[in-house]
Amino acid sequence: MIKNWIGLKTLVRREILRFFVVFSQTLIPPLISSALFIFVFGFSIGRNLRLEVAGVSYLQFLVPGLVMMHLIESPYANTSSSLFMSRWHNMIQELLLSPLSYFEMVLGLLAGGVVRGLLVGTGVYAVSLGFTQFSFYNPWIVLYFFVVVTVIFSCLGLLVGLWAEGFEKLSVWSTFVITPLIYFGGVFHTLDMVPAPLRIVTKLNPIFYLVNGLRYGMIGVSDTNIAFSMILAATLAIFLFLAVETLFRRGYKLRS
Amino acid sequence: MTADAITIQGLVKSYGALKAVDGIDLAVAEGDFVAFLGPNGAGKTTTINAITGLSNFQSGSVRVFGMDVVADYRRTRPLIGLCPQEFNFDPFLSIHKLLVYQAGYFGVAPAEASHRAQELLRYFRLGEKRNIDFRKLSGGMKRRLLLCRALVHDPKILILDEPTAGADLELKYRIWDFLTDLNRKGKTIFLTTHYMEEAERLANKVTIIHRGKIIHQGDKATLLGNQTLEQKYLELTKGAGEES
Fold first, then answer.
1. Which domain holds residue B136?
2. In chain A, fewer beta carbons within 10 Å around the N or the C end?
């Protein structure tokens, strides 16, 4: 399926270089905001309220949610801005003229988002170690959600990067869709902490299953069935990847 | 019998109600230096985009050395180098890295890509600027960089869309000499330009497109007779304009 290995590796290198060049905007801010979240909500308020959730401290409950938040936001921001800027400056021609297959192009572009997501997710977890320490309940499930979630939101970022016609449209999805879904997706609370009508809405939110899947892997606590969360994550990743690849092959907003 | 470098048959490309290219047939033999001329909006860039795969088209076929540019794009794209009109470079990369990455997309290994990039930058007098990004280059330097990028994967066909626009006289002559030399070494060159002097000096074949249709295609010498290319071009495009 992959024939142009050098081309693919080159594209992956470029996409990684792109966010490393501006690491103070791409890698550092999530670590600072996570440290603040953990300190204010988990360490200070959580400790003083003596809040216990599902048999673990609130701080331990919070960490997987925060990690997931950045496994979602960083890949999305990376691929959406990278592709949109490439279209905006017409640099995308460099790729479209090359013999990279559309599969390879999509793989290369999303690799940048995946690597950035993995680095930020790991970094947020590392920051949390300054406040609380626990060993992973199941490291393989943690690894699974790290990889699959970054693929999902890298693909979503590519879709928005293709669709957006201006900078304002680039932030529409993030502001009005992804951020609300994250905040209502169980990052900060369990299902029984929200009013009954909202529980139904929460269960319709796919991010709820991703947050709980990772939380299960990290601390062994979940509001969802772990097998269902894993299958849903894989299905979303495959579906979105195929959608992006199809749009690239058709030249949607890439070819005149 | 070997296939032509470029063969276009019945190419139609519309943008809504506007037919940018209206059923054109075109053949470019290997080793030719073709000047592809026409007024603004005649369909030159659309035709180039169809050849390079930057544009979808409604009907017709485009072949490069006998291979379809849509079905067989992985084999046709390495054969083509495009020098576009606009400066569409990646601002995150130094100009040397930019060329190395571009060669990489075409499967050229990093060491070889770096060597080719250095050679091209040196030839086009950009060697000293190798570590800066393109935004710090002058207009003429950016134009030279476009040529470097088009050539870094060593294509058999070079497609040039206004390669000397905005270039000073010295640079223009240097580019002309370089293109002549490349053509002599066997590269097929497909040039669009508004400078008739440039086309007359460089090309051995002339193709003229007007309102999406080819109105002339053939040897430059046969076309010109005792006229200049500018005179002939105006005569043909004016005649075609009156007919339509």
1. 6-215+229-243
2. N
Q: How many domains does chain B have?
A: 1
Q: Are B181 and B202 in contact (CB under 8 A)?
A: no
Task: Dig out the tokens for B141 from the structure.
Answer: 């330097």
CATH code (residue B46): 3.40.50.300
In a domain, B222, yes or no: no
- ipTM exceeds 0.85: yes
User: How close is the nearest chain B Cα to the Cα of A80, in Å?
Assistant: 16
Cβ pair A256:B84 closer than 8 A = no
Give domain status of residue B220, yes or no. Answer: no
Which tens digits make up the pLDDT trace of B128-173? 999 999 999 988 899 999 999 999 999 999 999 999 987 888 889 9
Best A97, A253, A256 residue to mutate vs chain B (most B CBs within 10 Å): A97
Q: For chain A, what are the domain ranges? A: 5-250
Distance from CA of B104 to the nearest CA of A (A): 5
Record: contact A99-B53, CB cut-off 8 A: no
Cβ distance of A3 and B56 shorter than 8 Å: no
- Contact B104/A18, CB-based, under 8 Å? no
Nearest residue in A to B16, CA atom = A256
Is B1 part of any domain? no
d(CA B4, CA B32): 10
> Which residues in chain A are closer than 8 Å to B77, comparing Cβ atoms?
97-99
B151: nearest Cα among B196, B119, B193: B119
Bridge partners for B12 per DSSP: B22, B59
- DSSP code string of B189-243: EEEE-S-HHHHHHH-SEEEEEETTEEEEEEEHHHHHTTS-HHHHHHHHHHHHHHH
User: Which structure tokens are listed for A2?
Assistant: 């992959």
In a domain, B223, yes or no: no
Give the model confidence (pLDDT) of A106-161 as tens digits.
Answer: 999 999 999 999 999 999 999 999 998 888 999 999 999 999 999 999 999 999 99
